[in-house]
Periplasmic/secreted protein (Magnetospirillum fulvum MGU-K5), 238 residues
Amino acid sequence: MRAFLWAGSLALCLVAGTGSAALAEEPGQTILTLHESAETLISPDVLNVTLRIEAEGADAATPQKALNRAVAAALAKARAVDGVTIATGPYYTSRNEPQAKSSAAPLWRASQTIDLTSRRFDALLALAGELQSDGLAMVGMSYQVSPQARAGVHETLVTEAFSALRQEATLVARATGLSIVGYKTLSLSPTARPPVMMKAARGMAMSAEAIAPQGEAAAQPVRVDVDAEVILELRRAP
């Protein structure tokens, strides 16, 4: 695994509270504030697809019946594919009034989304294509790095970030003629990047002849940020 270390900003001054370093509580001590990061690239191991089903009718019952049948059929197809996790989204029903002075009757609409997740990219893409051919609209598709994959590199990134921070503190201490006493504060912040999203236009469904949606997973960065307040003091004579 290749990791990238990002040098953090540092400053050393003897004016309390006005910079990234300040006098500590103990006489002769100084607080040095440091920030370091370690980052690596991971190939996504999860694909998420969201599809929407819509129906219309002259009364509330008509679109809801049609929607319920379509959702049941879509879920049956999804359950038949191994390795696909299924979750249904919010269910909406609305009455849409015609424009002013129009003689048209009100129109009822019902809609619901289905979220499909899998580590088997090809199988999920093929399923999504089938559901699009059935009239479902693609809302979005995203490649993601799972929590398990992130955990697999977390320890290495933490070790590298803290190692870089210690090296930076040692360099500053040596350059200023001070010695490191310890740490006043330490904080660790794993940074999660948003998944790569591919969105479809509202209502975009595929014809019966259309092929499955295409996707290519790109490596995503996983990063750890470390902040510390390092206590420095004048070197004592031997």
